[in-house]
Amino acid sequence: MIQYPKLTINDRLNQQRERLPLADLQETFKESWTVNEKWQVTFAITDSLAYEQAIQLLDVQNIVNYDGQNYVITQCTKTVSGGVSVYEVTASHSFYRLANNVRQDNVKNGTQTYGLADAVNFMLANNDQGVTAEFIGDFPTTQIENLGNSSFNKFLQDYTSKFDASYVINNQQITFYSATYLKQQPVIDTLFYQHDVEDVKLSLDTTGLVNEVRCLGKPIDQESGTNDSQTKYQVDFIYRDDGSVKKWGLQRGDPLSDERFTDQASMTEYAQQTVQAQPIATLTTTAWNVVIRQCETVKLIMPNLDWQTIVALNGYERNPFNQFSLPTITFDNASLAINDINVAMFKHITNAHNNVGKTMAQLQAALGDLQNGDLITDDDTIDKLNKLGEIS
Questions:
Q1: Residue 233 pLDDT > 70, yes or no?
Q2: Is the CA virtual torsion 306, 302, 37, 182 positive or negative?
Q3: Partners of 145 in beta bridges
Q4: Cα 69 from Cα 82, distance rounded (Å)
Q5: Is residue 217 over pLDDT 60?
Q6: The pLDDT value given to residue 1
Q7: Nearest to 177 by CA among 40, 293, 300
Q8: Is the pLDDT of residue 150 over 50?
Q9: 244: burial class by Cβ within 10 Å (0-12, 13-18, 19+)?
C-alpha cells in the first residue's frame, strides 16, 4: 500500500484543520526547494461540496501542514471557467516569515570580523519567534559593517554565501553546514543513469558573468573649499579575473563599492568572492525511486559514457502524491561535472567514429574480395561477419 505524506490545511489561529482532495494533489501538487533560497509548495484545488470546509480555508496567511513542516499561504488565486472554480495556491515555508519577524534593532558599530555563530547568535538574541540555530562544520570569518538593525531573513540573504554555508530548516530550527563539512561527508547514495536517473541536462548561463570591475573602498575625507569635486578613495583599483577573460571574453561590470575596505589585498579577496567570474552551471536530472535528502552528497554514474562525478543536491521539485511523476533534482559544483561529462561525451563520440571507420574499412575489404572474384562460402561469410562483430 502506497503511503502518502500527510497534508492538511488550517486557519492562522489553528482552530480548524481540514484535509484536501488527494486526486487534485496527485495532479497538481509540487514541492520546490533550492538551498539557501526557497522552500515552498504549490497546488490547485477544484471547488467541490465534498471539500467545502477545506476550500474555505484556502486563503492567504492560513497554514498548510505538509510532511511535518508548516507553510504559510502567500498567494491564492481563484479562477472560474465553464462554471468550475479552481483555487491555485502557493505557500512558503513558515520559517521565512518567522525569520522576517526576528529583528535585531541593536547595532554593533564599525567594521568587525565575525564568525558565523557569533553573527547569527547576535541576530537571534532574545527573539520572540522561537527561532534557534545550530552550526555543523568549520566556517570562515568575514567582515561585516554595522551588524544589526535588520531582520534575520535579510541577514541570511546578505551573508550566508560569504560564510560559505548552506542551511537546512526544520520549522523553527535552522542548521548551518559548512561547505568543507558537506564535501567531506561519505557518499551514501549512488545514482546510475538509466537505472536511478533519466534525462540528464547540463547547462551554462553567462547572463550575470562579470570578470572586470572597478573596486572602490572607503572614501577619503576631503577638505572643504577644494575645487576637486571628484570623490577619492583609500582603495581604488581594477579587479580582473584573467582566467575568466581568456575563457569567456571580457565582461565588465558595475563598480564594486564598499566603505569597509582600506586595504587593497582585503578588497581583492572580497571581489574574488563577490564577482561572478564563471558561468552559472546547472546539472539537472529526473530520478526514479530516489530518497531525496537536502544537501546530500551523491555519486552520479553514467556507464554509457564511462563517466562519474561527486555532486551535492541543492534543489528539487517533486510530487510525492503521484508515483508516476518523477522528481527533478539539481546538483551543485556542476562546472566540474559539465567539464568532465563534455570530455566523456567527446571521447565517446570519437570512439564511435573510430569504430565506424574500422567497420567500413573491413567491409570495403570484404566487398573488394567479391569484386576480385573471390566467391565467399557460407563458412567464409560467417568468419568475416564474426570479425566485424569483434569491434569494441
A1: yes
A2: negative
A3: 111
A4: 35
A5: yes
A6: 61
A7: 293
A8: yes
A9: buried
Instruction: With a cut of 60, say whether residue 383 has pLDDT above it.
Output: no
**CA torsion 319→322→324→327, rounded to 10°?**
10
SS (H, E, C) the chain: CCCCCCEEEECCCCCCEEECCHHHHHHHCEEEEECCCEEEEEEEEECCHHHHHHHHCCCCCCEEEECCEEEEEEEEEEEEECCEEEEEEEEEEHHHHHHHHCEEEEEEEEEEEECHHHHHHHHHCCCCCCCEEEEECCCCCEEEEEEEEEEHHHHHHHHCHHHCEEEEEECCEEEEEEHHHHHHCCCCEEEEECCCEEEEEEEEECCCCCCEEEEECCECCCCCCCCCCCCCECCEEEEECHHHHHHHCCCECCCEECCCCCCHHHHHHHHHHHCCCCCEEEEEEEECCCCCCCCCEEEEEEHHHCEEEEEEEEEEEECCCCCCCCCEEEECCHHHHHHHHHHHHHHHHHHHHHHHHHHHHHHHHHHHHHHCCCCCCHHHHHHHHHHHHCCC
b/e map of 261-286 (b: 16 or more CB within 10 Å)?
beebeebeebbeebbbbbbebbbbbb
pLDDT at site 23? 93
pLDDT at 188: 55
Return the biggest CA–CA distance within the chain.
Answer: 106
Q: Does residue 195 have a pLDDT over 80?
A: no
How much is the pLDDT for 174? 97
Residues 6+ apart with CB under 8 A from 10: 16, 17, 18, 57, 62, 63, 65
Q: Taking phi first (over 0 means left), then psi (-120 to 50 degrees means alpha), and beta for anything else, what does residue 373 get?
A: left
Phi, psi torsion values for 350, nearest 5 degrees: -60, -45
> How many angstroms separate the CA atoms of 17 and 25, rounded?
17
Q: With 80 as the cut, is the pLDDT of residue 156 above it?
A: yes
Place of cell 527533478: 328
- Cβ atoms within 10 A of the Cβ of 18, count? 16
